[in-house]
Automatic annotation (TrEMBL):
Name recorded for this polypeptide: GntR family transcriptional regulator
Entry keyword Transcription regulation: yes
Domain spans labelled HTH gntR-type: 9-76
Keyword set, alphabetical order: DNA-binding, Transcription, Transcription regulation
Presence of the UniProt keyword Lipid biosynthesis in the record: no
Signal peptide interval: none
Organism: Comamonas terrae
PROSITE patterns in the record: HTH_GNTR (PS50949)
Length: 211
């Protein structure tokens, strides 16, 4: 069996992804200091690829570099969250309008399938969270604007620093599902205006739960 040799670039990208997931899962909490020496030893790597990985996460807004103090998991303020939700609402409402007008029947059926799976996991917050994001990204893929997709992907990384709190609030999962149903019905009715409005409502309610 041929041994695979990782390039330095592949290595730091893998490290960035591992740290990214630890941040999303709150193993590394917002505001936590990132112990570079400990993590380098844990992963069996030098500090060079780790520092490159931290630069990637800093560019995404997930890590904050402080002079002479090192790297910290970014803490998001209520204003940060409000700003992110506002931008996501604008971008995804526009995407929903495009989808309502241009999606094929097969694309809407695939989106509906994800929605139905979402409905089946209201008692599993982690799975619901994953499917919720899948639904939104599927919607964006159908709208087919790579620039919007990149913006949304970056914004959603920041949102994940706080998102679990909103979904874990009592009743929020059920409310979120109902909002997704409204979005889905508007899409199936081929109503761009209703679809955009349903997405805006979804984000407005999500922001209220997140703050």
């Amino acid at each position: 069996m041929t041994k695979t040799t990782l390039t330095p670039r592949a290595l730091y990208e893998q490290v960035a992804e591992q740290l990214r997931q630890r941040i999303f899962q709150h193993e590394l909490e917002p505001g936590a200091w990132i112990d570079e020496l400990k993590i380098a030893e844990e992963y069996g790597i030098s500090r060079t690829p780790l520092r490159e990985a931290l630069k990637v996460l800093a560019a995404e807004g997930l890590v904050t570099m402080k002079v002479r103090r090192g790297a910290y998991v970014t803490e998001v303020s209520p204003k940060d969250i409000a700003d992110v939700y506002r931008l996501l609402s604008l971008l995804e409402a526009d995407a929903a309008a495009v989808v309502a007008e241009t999606a094929t029947d097969a694309q809407l059926a695939a989106l509906r399938s994800t929605h139905e799976e979402l409905r089946q996991h209201t008692h599993n917050a982690e799975r619901f969270f994953a499917l919720n994001e899948q639904f939104h990204m599927q919607l964006l893929d159908i709208a087919d604007n790579r620039w919007r997709n990149q913006l949304v992907a970056d914004l959603r990384k920041v949102m994940k620093l706080n998102r679990h709190k909103s979904l874990f609030r009592q009743g929020r999962i059920e409310d979120s599902l109902a909002e997704h149903e409204a979005i889905m019905q508007a899409l199936l009715a081929r109503s761009p205006r209703a679809a955009a409005e349903a997405v805006r409502t979804h984000f407005q309610n999500g922001l209220l739960a997140a703050t």
